[in-house]
Design brief:
single chain, mainly beta, eight-stranded antiparallel β-sheet, seven-stranded antiparallel β-sheet, 15 strands, globular
């Protein structure tokens, strides 16, 4: 009897939670950036035996012995950074699949980071997409995360979808299939990342916190846990170019803010799919997050 009940739960979840279509944002930044071959911009960083390349797809996997990750060859001080990712279905609790910017290796204990993370789950429950921003060590000694978590309006295990970060001198924008889901504005330099960062992707065991605050752990009876990446898009200003370099625009009018149509699409995403906002968490010390 258990199997039919599980199947029914999956069908109900699929019908109720993946039935919405996103509104058009009216502007598609991914279409303005050419796809880059993996070898041109990235190198495997760790878990060499847990990474495979087939045509244009990079597959990473996690088992009990190791996960895997890659890192960009060059550091950037602004830009558009995107990849199409397909996640694994089934039991993935405790697994973190990520695409992010960071300088943690260059500034240990005092680093900056901008994250897109997919937090694993159990059958019948959706993945959480977590966005986060750490600034000047706020992810190190005194952890001050700026997490916003979303469910998605599609099944991220059925096909590739494009996820991106646009970081310019005025704001950070997180995109899902060109729909902006979050902005993080530069209200003052102390709480905005300005130092060069590298682009990373990885899959690793985050059982301590990833699924239901660490209550459900990775279960290696279900290994390997697999993530696939393709369609890498990088267009930015490296740390080595002149200050006249400008990143791709976040909106049709430039980098001074999103358009009215983009703001409407973001409001739709947050109204329907935002499940956690650090600014609204009464347990947080908001003296440490003045942007709230």
């Amino acid at each position: 009897m258990a199997f039919p009940l599980i199947l029914l739960a999956l069908l109900v979840f699929s019908h109720c939670c993946y039935s919405q279509r996103s509104p058009s944002p009216g502007y598609y930044p991914s279409s303005r950036v050419l796809t880059s071959p993996f070898d041109r911009d990235f190198r495997t960083q760790w878990g060499f035996q847990h990474q495979r390349r087939e045509h244009d797809i990079i597959t990473l996997w996690l088992d009990k012995s190791s996960g895997s990750g890659f890192k960009s060859i060059r550091p950037y001080r602004s830009g558009y950074f995107g990849a199409s990712i397909r996640l694994q279905s089934g039991y993935t609790a405790g697994v973190d699949t990520s695409f992010f910017l960071s300088n943690h290796q260059e500034h240990p204990g005092d680093h900056d980071e901008v994250d897109i993370e997919f937090l694993g789950t159990t059958p019948g429950k959706p993945y959480s997409l977590q966005t986060n921003v750490f600034v000047r060590g706020s992810g190190d000694r005194n952890v001050i995360g700026r997490e916003m978590k979303f469910n998605l309006w599609f099944d991220p295990t059925r096909d590739f979808h494009h996820y991106a970060i646009l970081w310019n001198p005025n704001q950070i924008v997180f995109y899902v299939d060109d729909v902006p889901i979050r902005t993080y504005d530069r209200k003052n330099e102390a709480i905005f990342p300005t130092r060069p960062m590298w682009v990373y992707g990885s899959i690793w065991d985050a059982s301590d916190w990833a699924t239901e605050n660490g209550r459900i752990k990775a279960d290696y009876r279900y290994q390997p846990f697999v993530a696939q990446y393709r369609n890498f898009k990088i267009a930015g200003c490296t740390a080595y170019v002149s200050n006249s370099c400008r990143p791709p625009p976040a909106a049709p009018t430039g980098n001074r803010g999103l358009s009215h149509q983009q703001m409407g699409a973001m409001a739709w995403a947050q109204r329907n799919f935002l499940v956690y906002n650090y600014c609204h968490d009464p347990k947080r010390d908001h003296t440490q997050t003045p942007e709230c």
